[in-house]
Design a protein that fits this description.
alpha+beta, globular
Amino acid sequence: MRVTVDYTGWSCTDCIILIANGDVPGDLPESMVHEWLARFDARSAGRHVVPGGEHDPGCPRTDCECDTRDWSSLPCDTCGEPAHGARHAVTFFTETI
């Protein structure tokens, strides 16, 4: 099997919990869960998504948290949510045989 990293991106806290634990946000109304999961699936477009990304080449430390941004005004790369807040590095990849 061959793994190809397609790109890295930034996920909101709700998406990183889904990616890491498979849990949907507890504060999301049940009527909106299906829509949120559909947006996540559409944006990942059949790729696997895992927590973590490339280490910031400008960071002098190896024990840092440069894969977390405490505040961002950019939309989430995995669900498209435009709300501002924390973002966590993720990697999108595909597998081929």
